[in-house]
Amino acid sequence: MDIQTELSQTVQTFLDQMGFDKNITFEVSYDKEDNRYQVLLKSDTPALLIGYHGNTLSGLQLFLSQHLHQKLGEWINLSVDVNDYRERREQSLKVLADSTVEKVLSSNQAYILPPMPASERRVVHMYLSEHPQVSTASSGEGKQRSVVISPKV
Questions:
Q1: Do 122 and 62 share a structural domain?
Q2: What global pTM score does this model have?
Q3: Helix H segments across the chain?
Q4: What total number of domains does the chain contain?
Q5: What is the pLDDT of residues 43-62, one digit of tens each?
Q6: Is the pLDDT at 21 greater than 80, yes or no?
Q7: Which band of pLDDT confidence, cut at 50, 70 and 90, is reported for residue 41?
Q8: What CATH number does the domain containing 109 carry?
């Protein structure tokens, strides 16, 4: 059985066993450019699948990744999204970064963003990595880890 078929069956089984309504549809695809399997879920009630700050969505992605690893004996690069949540979240993180950069440059002081998961911190770090006037660093521990945006010296 190929990876895409196994992934599709696992997603369907998970949704059925968790009792999610039949109004959830999904598509599994492979992105050759990123070497990543993508599971795109569509739902009338996306909040149930996304969870608080994307925790349920991240858990589902971890569950699917671990299941495939156990079944296939290798780690598969996998991304799970619901109603384009991750893309919208990435855009809002970039807007937050831009507004924080303005504050940093006007005050010449570092600002600390709210705590966020590693994947979201990475978005901010990557987005600002080429910025000529600010630098970023992570600060804190565990769930309290956040991005610090500072003026470059």
A1: no
A2: 0.81
A3: 3-17, 46-50, 55-72, 85-107, 118-128
A4: 2
A5: 988 998 899 888 889 999 99
A6: no
A7: very high
A8: 3.30.1370.50
pLDDT tens by residue, 94-137: 999 999 999 999 999 999 999 998 889 999 999 999 999 999 99
Mean pLDDT of the chain: 92
The pair of three-digit structure tokens given for residue 50, joined into one six-digit string: 């996304």
**Domain-ending residue, one of 60, 83, 106:** 83
Specify whether 7 is located in the same domain as 68.
Answer: yes
pLDDT value for 20: 77
Domain boundary at 68, 83, 98, which?
83
Q: Do 118 and 61 form a contact (C-beta atoms < 8 A)? A: no
Q: Which of 106, 98, 113, 123 is nearest to 147 (CA)?
A: 113
150: closest CA among 135, 139, 140, 138?
Answer: 135
52: containing domain: 3-83
Q: Which residues of 38-72 are buried (b: 16+ CB within 10 A; e: fewer)?
A: bbbbebeebeebbeeebeebbebbeebbebbeeee
Q: Are residues 67 and 109 in the same domain?
A: no
DSSP character string of 39-58: EEEE-S-HHHHH-GGGHHHH
